[in-house]
Amino acid sequence: MSVRWTTAVLDTSISGGWAVARSNQGFLLDGNGVLFSREWLKRQDLDVLCEHGIGHFDGEPVYLLELRSPQDVPGCTWQGLRQFMLQGDFDIFKLLGYAAQIGTWAREHRFCGSCGAAMTQIPRERAMFCAPCDLRCYPRIAPSMIVLITRGDEILLARSPRFVAGVYSTLAGFAEPGESAEDCLIREVREEVQVEVRNIQYVGSQCWPFPHSMMLGFHAEYAGGEIVCQEDEIEDAQWFRIDALPPLPAGRSIARYLIDLYVARRLGLAEPVLPG
């Protein structure tokens, strides 16, 4: 089977291809999806902040129109990136996840962070350039650690006040400068539930629908300590038996994959596949 979505730096001076439009309300969508004729989309009098060629979908070139603000387009609505992850074509979600990262980067690097001069897009390279400073800025990735902590047939799950009501998930947090992935994991677990872990094992990764975010998934065994929830961050945290789990995260998320993988291994079931 051919790869449906591949990234590439495309020349925006060339006509044709498909395009997606993004604003602070998400991506433009109609009854046929998010991929529009690029030429048609440009005729809609959209307030375009910038345009970037982002790759190929089913072999066809795809461009991103990053808008200053959302606008009404007849027959279209706006939908957030997370909804695309939870439903529909996962290849489309990967395309949009990349588009969101590039759009955010382009929006945040219109001006040099050192001298304030306007930056220009470098042809055939995913970089913005400040001539006075001779500074190049590339899209950045912010690694986040997500971990399933286990104790035999029990797993440690927690609730953030920001979660959907009733849903419990694995612990996660962003890496600090100078930290290894393992250091970050140990620190985040201590901060959020005051538990110690051991036997840390990397499982897999997933692009997450937040700016610059790459989730690195781990499994760790419980090593000691009583659960004490971090104020304002963790609403509740408990040990759950694998045969009595609470409502869990969406099936396409790496959090759900870590849970399902451990349950499958404990019960001798077929192992799930991480979407990606």
Account of the protein in words:
The chain has five helices and 16 strands. By secondary structure, the protein is α+β, with helices and mostly antiparallel strands. It folds into two domains: 104 residues, Alpha-Beta Complex (Nucleoside Triphosphate Pyrophosphohydrolase); 126 residues, Nucleoside Triphosphate Pyrophosphohydrolase (Alpha-Beta Complex), CATH 3.90.79.10. Strands 1, 2, 3, 4, 5, 6 and 7 form a seven-stranded mixed beta sheet that branches. Strands 11, 12, 13, 14, 15 and 16 form a six-stranded mixed beta sheet that branches. A hairpin with a 2-residue loop joins β5 and β6. The two termini are 15 Å apart. The model has no long low-confidence stretch (mean pLDDT 93).
**Average of pLDDT:** 93
What is the gyration radius calculated from CA atoms? 21 Å
How large a portion of the residues is in β-strands, by DSSP E? 35-45%
Helix content range: 10-25%
Number of domains: 2
